[in-house]
Automatic annotation (TrEMBL):
The lineage of its organism: Bacteria, Pseudomonadati, Pseudomonadota, Gammaproteobacteria, Oceanospirillales. The keyword rRNA processing does not apply. This is Regulator SirB. Keywords: Membrane, Transmembrane, Transmembrane helix. Pfam families: SirB. The chain crosses the membrane at residues 38-60, 72-91, 97-115. GO terms for cellular component: plasma membrane. InterPro entries: SirB (IPR007360). It comes from the Bacteria.
């Protein structure tokens, strides 16, 4: 599979993941019941799994790995872990501050991806 195809599939996964987070996060703050439905959680897990699979395939193809030989990928990985914690708090516990910080974390991850530097200034 070509790198360009992997990158485009990864970006598709990013779009789906961000759309689901924003939709579920806003609806969770509004206390909409479907947010906790099984299908909503499963759709989110599928989106994230696809996103991570494409990222791993790109890392393999480029031989660039977080925690090993790429500071910006390490920053993205740490940002992803922080984002997961914040998104969980925002959606399961209906914490507005976690939703806002989760969105800022997504912006940081995107900035790192575009700049290829962990030192992104927003």
């Amino acid at each position: 599979m070509s790198y360009l195809l992997l990158k485009n599939l990864h970006l598709l996964g990013v779009g789906a993941s961000v759309a689901l987070f924003l939709t579920r996060g806003v609806c969770a703050q509004l206390n909409v019941s479907w947010v906790q439905a099984a299908w909503a959680r499963i759709a989110s897990h599928i989106s994230h799994t696809f996103l991570l699979l494409m990222a791993l395939l790109m890392c393999y193809q480029l031989n660039m790995w977080p925690l090993y030989n790429s500071a910006w990928l390490t920053a993205k990985l740490i940002g992803l872990i922080v984002y997961i914690v914040l998104a969980t708090l925002a959606i399961k516990r209906q914490r507005g501050w976690a939703f806002g910080l989760g969105f800022l974390c997504l912006m940081y991850i995107a900035g790192v991806a575009f700049s290829k530097s962990p030192w992104v200034v927003m």
